[in-house]
Amino acid sequence: MAYGWPADLSNEEILRRLVALNAERAEEESRGIIRWLRPEFQNPAGTATAQGALALPADTKPPKLKAPKKTAFPRAPAEQARAARAVEDDLFAA
Prior knowledge:
This protein has helices spanning 11-30, 39-42, 77-91. The chain has 94 residues and is mostly helical.
């Protein structure tokens, strides 16, 4: 899985780890360390910054994802809100 994390992490653990990574990255950036993913586009001026390695282990494979179920999006605003909430609930169901 991404970042070398186990595939069976709970949503709460994934979120906790992402928040920790974000805090770590913000701290690095405050010290002038910026990890460009595509420096030729993100930093075309080539200003001096540190570029850290973001490589995943060689045996890392992307997860197999199921095709999402397609449904018609409701026209009424209240129904749209309910539909959006249902998607959110599905994404973060434990």
